[in-house]
Structure formats: structure tokens, C-alpha cells
Amino acid sequence: MTNENFSKYSEQAEKMLMGPTRDYVKLAMDYTEKLMEAQLEAAKTYSEIGLGQARAALDIKDTKALQAYAEEQQKVAKDLSERVKGDAEKVVAMNQDFVNEARKLVETNVKTASETAAAQTKAK
Q1: Which residue intervals define the domain Phasin in the entry (predicted)?
Q2: Counting CB atoms within 10 angstroms of each CB, which of 27, 46, 56, 123 has the fewest?
Q3: Which of 34, 19, 38 is nearest to 112 (CA)?
Q4: Rounded to an integer, what distance in angstroms lies between the CA atom of residue 104 and that of residue 98?
Q5: 118-123: average pLDDT
Q6: CB within 8 A of 64, min separation 6: which ones?
């Protein structure tokens, strides 16, 4: 009988604690990985833009080149602001996905806990 009780306890612990914890940690790790990938991609892109602009500034030899550089700066600033906006929207969408998935996990776990509690009440 002791082994049976231990098995029931282990099964309940898995259903109510360990399983949900593993599911949440997996979700959090997946989210963190996606967020880090997005941040690394953004940092690389912004670095490339900055280095490209620095190289372009080094090529300025006369007033005509300076004027062309200044005009290009306006385009780069516009493109960069659109990129930053897009990156921010991407992060917001990832955050919302994470929240929605976490909410689903909580709802599933509450349902499982309720069913387990009901089964325990009936068994007694």
C-alpha cells in the first residue's frame, strides 16, 4: 500500500507541479531565445548602418560630396526610424504571444488542479 500511495503522490506532483513548471520554463526559454535573436539582429543592423555612415563620411572630399552625404543622411534617418519602429512592434508582438501562451498554461493547470482535487474528494 505504501508504494501505491507513493505512486499516487508522484503522479499528482507531476500533474500539479513538475509538469506545469517544465511547460512554463520551456515557454520562457523559447521567448528568451526569440528575444535575444531579435536583439542581436537589430544590433547587427544598427552597427552596419553606423559603420556605413562613418565610411561614407570619410569619403567626403568636396562640397558636392558633403551635400550628397547630407541628403543621404535624411534617407538613412528615415529608414532607421522605420526600422526601430518595426523592431519595437516585433518585440511587442512577441511579448503579447508570451502572455497569451502563459495565460493558456495557467488556465490548463487550474483545470487540471480542479479535476485532481475533485477526483481526490470522490476517492475519499
Answers
A1: 18-110
A2: 123
A3: 19
A4: 10
A5: 70
A6: none
- Report the half-sphere exposure of 45 (CA within 13 A, side-chain side): 15
- Residues, the chain, total? 124
Question: Residue 96 corresponds to which amino acid?
Answer: Q
Widest pairwise Cα distance in the chain: 92
> 20-72 pLDDT, tens per residue?
889 999 999 999 999 999 999 999 999 999 999 999 999 999 999 999 999 99
**Which sequence spans correspond to the domains of the chain?**
16-107
Task: Pull the grid cell for residue 106.
Answer: 495557467
**What does the pLDDT look like over 81-103, one tens digit per residue?**
999 999 999 999 999 999 999 99
DSSP label at 62?
A: S
